[in-house]
# Entry
Amino acid sequence: MDAIKDVRLITNSVEGWLNDTEGIYLYDSARSCTGKGVIVEIGSWKGKSTIWLAKGSLAGHSIQVYAIDPHTGSEEHRAIMPYIDTYRDFISNLQMASVNHIVKPIRKTSAETVADFSSPVELLFIDGAHDFLSVKRDFLNWFPRLIEGGLVVFHDTDWDGPRKVIEQLVLNSRMITNAGFLSGSSIFHAKKIRKNSVSDALFNRYLIYLRRFSLYLSTIQLPASVKRIGNNALKFIS
Ligand SMILES: C[S@@+](CC[C@H](N)C(=O)[O-])C[C@H]1O[C@@H](n2cnc3c(N)ncnc32)[C@H](O)[C@@H]1O
# Structure
């Protein structure tokens, strides 16, 4: 698709960690938003994921994207770079992508933002600090803002923080349905529902063990052909 090709070209010039499969997933999710709530991104860095979300939104119902980031990096960044300020690059990347009119940057932490945030949320993308307590706080603070039928998406779910939050809180919640890990990516996604079914709850438990097995497979030495068979067998969880 030409539109996706164009966004790919733009985002490939923006520093960040999101791969194209993940970007296209965010684009499609934002394009599907109906307007019952806004789009919230926690953790923007220089705008790679923000641009995918904003372009998807513009291809759909032009729902406002709130991009929350203090622009001072996370612990893992500050450990290797003593001074971080990504705000200028973020704004100039939004301008370069012509999405600045649809994105509202909020230069604060997610915890500082949530109390004053009054709009319902239809799509929540969590990619801020990756330590367990921060991801837990992001989820607990913002999940109540998500409308029923809204989508929550986590990035970097192979990191311990997001992985544990998904295992302990998300997949154990009775308000989660349609959960899955996107194949070829580190994205986890799930829909919010008032109360899920028993089969949803069982499936969500099952997903925890399948994911652990998949992560284990990626850490051990096996012939490529065996790994391929294992990964193909796990594809249906995405
Ligand atoms: C992994 S980067 C985000 C990458 C971005 N989503 C992308 O695709 O390029 C994590 C970002 O989270 C931000 N961050 C750290 N703590 C935060 C917090 N409490 N609230 C919001 N953002 C936070 C950092 O400043 C950093 O820019």
Remarks:
- Residues 7 and 100 are 15 Å apart (CA to CA).
- The longest strand covers residues 146-154.
- The first helix runs from residue 2 to 11.
